[in-house]
Amino acid sequence: MTAAVFFGCTFIAFGPAIALFLFTIAREPLRVIFLIAGAFFWLVSLLLSSMVWFISVQISNKESAVQQKGLLIFGVVLSVLLQETFRFAYYKLLKKANEGLLTLSQEETMPISIRQLAYVSGLGFGFMSGAFSVVNILADSVGPGTVGIHGDSQHYFLSSAFMTMAIILLHMFWGVVFFDACEKQHWWAVAAVVISHLVVSCLTFQNPEYVASLVPTYVILFLMGVWAFYSAGGSFRNLKLCLTCKDKDFLLANHRPR
Amino acid sequence: MANNAEDVEKNMDQQQANAAPEPPQQQQQQQQQQAQEAATTRARSRGGSGAGGGGDGGGGGGGGGSGTGPEQNGQPPTPRPVVMVDAEEDEDEELTLKYGAKHVIMLFVPVTLCMVVVVATIKSVSFYTQNDGQRLIYTPFPEDTDTVAQRALNSILNATIMITVIIVMTLVLVLLYKYRCYKVIQGWLFLSSLLLLFFFSYIYLKEVFKTYNVAMDYFTLAIIIWNFGVVGMMCIHWKGPLRLQQAYLIMISALMALVFIKYLPEWTAWLILAVISVYDLLAVLCPKGPLRILVETAQERNEPIFPALIYSSTMVWLVNMADTDRPKRNSTEAASSQQETPEAAAAAAAAVVVSPAPSSPSQDDGGFTTSWVNQQQHQLGPLQSTDETRREIQQMPSARPPVEDDDEERGVKLGLGDFIFYSMLVGKASAAASGDWNTTLACFVAILIGLCLTLLLLAIFKKALPALPISIFFGLVFYFATDNLVRPFMDKLALHQFYI
């Protein structure tokens, strides 16, 4: 417990996301705004799914633990579906806004491309999702206590942190793939994103068997990462050029000599 | 202002060692501020009357606004032609988008900082969440009653009293402004910021030391508070580095919000937030609304609205003729007052509004001693430069290139009252909600999105708009929804470690 656990878990959970934010988003006001708007959309989806779950709990039998667990699982599935629906709604909104801006301004280039929007909105969803999942846990980890004193797992904080990191990055990858699929009308890809989200959430039903839930989640994370990389226009050649600092476009854009 | 001073002293005598006296002062300030702010967009400085109260300043969204600047360079300010050619309009739209986003971020950062300060204080210093049984005199009905109905009634009565006080103060301020009692208003604002910077910060520091068990002697404390206060007064009412001024404004907004969080009982606080947003909406948009009257009067007279306390995000340096009769000049205000953009119609709180137009023979000789003047007159013959002669010369085509109006350098302004109420909402959420951080986060995001939408509306309508309604509405909705619906759900999920 205390400071070491708190800082460790915070950096595990939010480290990559904050690094992404600082290096790619913080400088551009437009991206920051769309990030926060994405977070807002996720929040609204959570609100709706919580409302449905709450109502269903009120009309159900509160004594029966099995029923409550069943309702919780139903809540999780509903929440995942609503999140993806709101992701689609955000995509539609952004498309409309983009078109409006394009017709309004005489320029051909947009201030922000749909791919950047996909990345930013995915990260926004991820930030909010991760924050809501883990912030209360982190706040509790600062204070005194013994983890798992009643026989629960001792790795609660650590596993939560790793799971949160995976979820945040996954949301980002899902965002990229989702928007790209919507652009190209590849509805099978959209379905794949929804299904993978459902799979990841359902894997967590196995907690506290962390091996069974975390390892497949990270496998899915890696696969989605590769898919997002390719759908965003990356390729092995690009990667090689970038890593050896020979990518002319990138260098030009950043005003650096070869 | 004399009355206010008396009130303050009386109150101070009556109540020792608690900040209760402030509220009356604050309320008045609030009123004033409200009036001031209402004028400009966003100026919702309802904020604490207390010293900080001044915040009201009008917030003007978007650039300098039709700053009714004082005479510049000896010429009467000419309104910039609002007529724009069609071809330029589209370009301007594109620029508006890019620079509009920048302005939004320029407001996001200070609002976020203020909220972070308030939440951090609420979470660590228990003084601000303790119920000492003290109340403001404007909320005399207690909320620890036996029945829910009684509690509801009490809170409605409290909110009604508070709103009535605010309306009355706003009207008083508008009347004072209409009848040109500038000194009164200026003195009032000065006193309130004095109170906030010295007294409230002393209490805050005291409580922080108590919390962290820091032993400090009174001498060191006196030196710290003295320096903090004096530099604050200078930065806010006179000149200072921009970042320092912004930091002070954020600090006093946070202090004011903390006072509200401490002294307003639960239901009263939420009711007041809701009613104030409605009042804000009415006062700024209705034709007979006091704040709208204030803006229009200021525009008629071509004067900037009170500098009071308005958070301004940029400073533009201008070449200005040495003006006489100009007691205090805040460079941010001066800069912004010159920028009359068609976009921002909000009369940006410009610099000292209370100074009348400069008259030729002034008390300030501008550094020209009588001996020098005599010598010059002897050499060149009697010369007298009057406003008219200056104007003639100025109107001749000048060799100097015109000052470029750069969108980027035009800042945004937001009234301190807005800061205070946003922070109050988030602070109350973190203090009261048992869902803790989730609720706080939700309110935070909701308020930011509300601010974003308000700025978007400002860019579309280009006139004074209230900044409170949308944000507070979203904030309240998300607070109650998250606290009652989302919290149980997330708690259950965290218990089983399910992830959505």
Structure explained in plain terms:
The complex is a heterodimer of chains A (258) and B (500). With 258 residues, chain A is mainly alpha-helical. Chain A has one domain (1-254). Helix content of chain A is 79%, strand content 0%. Chain B is an all-alpha fold. Chain B has helices spanning 2-14, 22-39, 86-124, 148-178, 182-212, 218-237, 242-263, 266-285, 290-300, 331-338, 370-380, 387-395, 416-432, 437-461, 468-496; strands spanning 310-312, 413-415. Chain B has a two-stranded antiparallel sheet with strand order 1-2. Mean pLDDT of chain B is 72; it is low at 1-72, 77-84, 316-363 and 402-408. Chains A and B meet through helix 2, helix 3, helix 4 and helix 5 of A and helix 3, helix 14 and helix 15 of B. Chain A: It is a multi-pass membrane protein.
- On the 0 to 100 scale, the average pLDDT of chain A is 89
Q: Give the helix/strand class of chain A.
A: mainly alpha
Major sheet summary line of chain B: 2 strands, antiparallel
The class by helix and strand makeup of chain B works out as mainly alpha
Radius of gyration of chain A: 20 Å
Q: List the total number of helices of chain A.
A: 9
Tell me the layout of helices and strands:
The complex is a heterodimer of chains A (258) and B (500).
Chain A: H1 2-25, H2 29-58, H3 65-104, H4 114-142, H5 156-184, H6 187-203, H7 210-231, H8 236-243, H9 248-253
Helix pairs in contact in A: 1-4, 1-5, 2-3, 2-4, 3-4, 3-6, 4-5, 5-6, 5-7
Chain B: H1 2-14, H2 22-39, H3 86-124, H4 148-178, H5 182-212, H6 218-237, H7 242-263, H8 266-285, H9 290-300, E1 310-312, H10 331-338, H11 370-380, H12 387-395, E2 413-415, H13 416-432, H14 437-461, H15 468-496
Antiparallel strand pairs in B: 1-2
